[in-house]
């Protein structure tokens, strides 16, 4: 393995915002810009904006385009990694078979790579974050949805096409709530930030009293996972019940992962993980109830080490590995 | 990797029967004996019988004990692979922390290894069976329970302790039927042979008419998965409904595996797979409904290539790899 010694452009595209950065060979962020994805506008407009953001960020970095080793995109959807195509994206409408890699190569005349965002984050956490020097770990991001990345024998596992790790879309409750993917009862539909907001709204609509009504000036639709977390910290009964319920669901999925992978560590990122021990402690308890003793006692369930930068840094590492000739 | 060039003793221990064989360096079965496990008698008596069966099989093989490279056990339970201990076994009562490897080493004075049976079968199918030359595959055995084995990047993935692949014990239906592991709604509780028998018995007890009553002389408790399969082949409505329901559940779990692993192949062994296309065709259909398009179109779901010998041959390969110094 001889990683590229050049800086790269790393991009992390989610349903709400995207980040573009130039990252040095030793993983320092030289320049960085956040933008709203405005994903409802569809891929064409998003990509057009992305292209000019890339120009802007390269310019800001002081690095000449000719000195860059490549561009890597961590994308919140299913990626055909060999072809560099986004095949579908439950949380970004209309991204069906978008040849993102070739569009970047055409525009910037340098190597480009597209990888699932949670897989990129797993790589970032493994090389620079909470999972350094471990052999087997699972990364999950819990926010709007639930994504996953898998490190096996010290290497990122992408699966046959590049779609491995869609852990959020495993059925945990047959005929459960509708999921962003169109199916029912996926883990994501029970334990994501979206699920937390939905459960709180259901409680409010069924007439439960809660501080949430004050916090949103009575507009139930404005309740978000963060609002529920804030309410729980203030001691609100509805909010606490919802967080505990989500933690229980989170733990069931963690238990499934423990039984499947017997990993050394599960690293949790995303907005919901930012709630910290309030949700992680009951989730660990639920995990232990749903997994076999030995693997449950082995695994450490921890918060992300690189904050919100795991995906971005992981994308940079991926670009450097790939540009250096290592798949 | 330099596998041992010596023949080995390979053992496959399940809840119903165990098999002991001497297997040559080029994977020919030189001698073989089947015995009832009689698992209700507990580990001590089972192991005592196993020891004398090993003597018998070595004797039959014509190989001198001094020429053997070691002994490998494929065991239907959770194994701490480094310590050679069976930690727990949902389908074999009282096997809690049994130091099987050391007992074999003490008795036979040669290297011994203990590995999960479905992991062994995955290795067998990968090296000699349906999955030859593939990089990423999942093996599942569907019979009394559901076990799993994982091949990643051409190597068996055992997890941190040796417990990886307990795919049968992932929650698919929250608060679903009771499972052998003591929890509820595991995949095994919905799609195993035991689940098929249970669903048929429930139908009979609720008064559904069925050929099953004739086939079991009215003793509902005698209904087994094979009886249901035979009834379905004769066109019995209850049996056909139960097989289709189990196929649907089977497909949901397969869909989960496809979304997690994006594998090239899923190989299905065990008694239920012997029902063939009657259950596999509707299971594949259900799998496609529950998985993302790209990985669902990539994966091939096939029957086991080595029949009931996958675990035994996999154990032999494992012993040869380990005795040859390769973990």
Write a structural description:
- 2 copies of one chain form a homodimer.
- Chain A has 11 helices and 12 strands.
- Chain A is of the alpha/beta class and about 325 residues long.
- Chain A has 2 domains: about 10-120 and about 310-325, Nucleotidyltransferase, domain 5; about 130-305, Nucleotidyltransferase, domain 5.
- In chain A, the strands form 3 sheets. Chain A has a 5-stranded mixed β-sheet with strand order 3-2-1-4-7, with helices on both faces. A 5-stranded mixed β-sheet of chain A has the order 10-9-8-11-12, with helices on both faces. In chain A, strands 5-6 form a two-stranded antiparallel ribbon.
- The radius of gyration of chain A is 20 Å and the shape is globular.
- The relative contact order of chain A is 0.15.
Topology, element by element:
The structure is a homodimer of 327-residue chains.
Chain A: E1 8-13, E2 17-23, E3 29-36, H1 43-61, E4 71-75, E5 78-80, E6 85-88, H2 100-108, E7 112-116, H3 117-128, E8 137-142, E9 146-152, E10 155-157, H4 188-191, H5 193-205, H6 212-215, H7 225-233, H8 237-261, E11 265-269, H9 277-289, H10 293-298, E12 300-303, H11 310-323
Parallel strand pairs in A: 1-4, 4-7, 8-11, 11-12
Antiparallel strand pairs in A: 1-2, 2-3, 5-6, 8-9, 9-10
Helix pairs in contact in A: 3-11, 5-7, 5-8, 7-8, 8-9
